[in-house]
Amino acid sequence: MNNAITTNIVRFIALVLVQALVLNHINFLGYINPYVYILFIMLFPIKNNRLLFIFLAFLLGLSVDLFSDSGGIHSAASVTIAYIRPVLLKFSFGAIYEHQTIKFSNTEFGQRLTYFLIIILIHHFILFSLEIFNSSKIILILKKSLFSSIFTLILCLLITILFSRKSK
Question: Which segments cross the bilayer (predicted)?
Fold first, then answer.
């Protein structure tokens, strides 16, 4: 248990720092901004306290908001995906989630891709909807959401592949 707590603390701090110090300064073509800090929410252990998890998602979003000076939009998007994560896990992994035996390193790539893609799309749509906050700019919101989601998905998959532990 102690090892899992330490791993999650290190993951939390590392993702916030990478997001704040490196990724917040990337803005390709005005549409592409990677947000890999949500990996913490996506990879958080399933068996933990749900209320604690939602609170940690809020702290994660708040930390990114403080570094980005973005007024709470990251907090709102993070809490939303933390709240709906059980539904997305059940949709993506089915019976494995029912028995709460998911280990992301042991899941099929297609299931992991589906889970990551859905959660990233929802997060980015909420994030950019709150950032732009104008229904007449829906095309811009969708463009930013789509392009940033693709870039974030690629980075998240690369990070999980690079930092996954090989268990044999």
Answer: 12-44, 51-67, 113-133, 145-163
